Amino acid sequence: MNQNHREAMADVRDMYMAHTMFRREFSLLPQLVRDVTPGDTTRAEVVGAHAEMLCSILHLHLHLHHEGEDLLLWPRLTQRGGAQAAAIVPIMEEQHHAIEKAHAAVLALLPQWRRTGHGGGQLAAEFEQLRSALIEHMALEESEILPLAERHITASEWMQLGEHGMSAAPKKQLPLAFGLAMYEGDPEVIKAVLAHAPLPARLLMPIIAPRFFANHARRVHGTATPPRIGVGAR
């Protein structure tokens, strides 16, 4: 790879922070669903809205971040990372399809359960499948792709990938979504992520995002401090 050796390389800690959030939230979801008394539509609506929000964030990650990987990451990694990158990229793409299939299965069941409070056992089982596919994918990404990115992708190229992933994110969803990530996030990583945001976001997000998350967690989990998972944090 011909490049100025003084050029900063990718800081991939933002991806570890996102992975920790996905691991925690999708690990807690199956039991949240199972704990809803059949027919309790009030509680099913609360948990269902939470599940739909998480699925929406995951959808953006699947279709924008993964699209960005196809456009901006895989070509560079296969060109610069040699046989190791060439071997792992097809596996990553297969795993993307497995996640999309599990995600679609959840979305097929969620609306009816949310309205009626019935069928929670099957929905929880589908969430377990989604969680399993996600964790397998993220573990491989952390063991293979992120170390390659640190060696072969520049900081500006990595930032391009992040900007692509954020391009269509609903602005109203950002404070809660960032609060979800901040809950177990390293303060230094949070600061690095916000360094590229507009000034109002840099000033306000550290204040409002945790409040959005705490209020949401009280409603969903009954506490502002749901169980932390810590896996994948760095």
From TrEMBL:
It holds the Pfam family Hemerythrin. It comes from Micromonospora tarensis. It comes from the Bacteria. Residues 12-149 form the Hemerythrin-like domain. This is Hemerythrin domain-containing protein.
